Fold D-lactate dehydrogenase.
Amino acid sequence: MEETIVKIIAYGIRDDEKPYLDQWSKDKGIEVKAVAELLDESTVDQAKGYDGAVVYQQKPYTAEVLDKLASFGIKSLSLRNVGVDNVDADAIKRNDIKVTNVPAYSPNAIAELAATQLMRLLRRTNTFDCKIANGDLRWAPDIADELDQMTVGVIATGRIGRAAINIYKGFGAKIIAYDIFHNPELEKEGIYVDTLDELYAQADVISLHSPATKENEHMFNDEAFGKMKDGVFIINPARGALVDTDALIRALDSGKVAGAALDVYEDEVGIFNTDFGSFDAIPDERLKNLIKRENVLVTPHIAFFTKTAVKNMVQFALNSNVNLIEKGSDESQVKF
Ligand code: NAD
């Protein structure tokens, strides 16, 4: 057998990721050991003898685990996702571990779900599905809205926001946007408003695509909902922390918000991507309150979960890991 120079261990590999990992390993002739378990104190010893580690998990990458990796000579850590907030920064710096992420695996994956859910809300498909299942084939009173008659306010025009704008434009919607940084191409189109208040006042649909920071936590609170148009539709495939769930529930109760599509939820960790066996067993009353509503579409953080995105997450991370090991750097390296 041909001798390989680099050896990588990949933690938390799911069944849907494995074929892309195997294909990459075969194409590159590089050995990759796939481990189903996440990287923690109980699994870190499996990394002994490898040159780099590829990982993806919501649970913390602790100082103890990172110290151990470094003691095995592993100084190359590649995350298959964007966020690095669960990585112990002090341990990374202390051990001189180089870390990469995958900043954009498929912006369209997220934008397509946003548009899908918006169209479902506008055409009241959830309500019709329920009516039809009960033998009620009448139209009224569930009359739809047409997107080409509406103004979509896009908050944040980064990679995903721009992909969403392209799709909404395809439906003929009028687009307005708000971002703290103006994209030069979109600036030429004159779509930016100067303040969130202007966007709230004009938008029939608000599509949220900004990162969550300390400053914008619960940016959609009672005050913000109060500034929005009556009957606004809210699309959030960005971050749960951006929306004050209690305020959203109040806005849904009052009719201020006509419908909401949520792919993220502020208390989603430990709940999304879990099978509770029955609806009643979901251990979160606020979430159940939202799911039960016909004008709310909850999905368990699935926007990224497409074949293209999963393939890119796996293979971009493996490429970055090899670059770190062989060249000592990679364009996706994260500064700590
Ligand atoms: P990006 O870095 O390409 O763009 C982010 C944009 O947000 C930038 O234009 C930036 O200027 C702008 N921004 C930052 N702070 C802002 C603020 N306070 N107000 C307005 N604009 C602000 O990011 P992206 O790849 O487009 O990701 C957007 C969001 O989507 C992130 O929250 C990300 O976590 C989320 N996301 C969700 C999924 C999913 O599966 N649901 C998958 C990937 C990303």
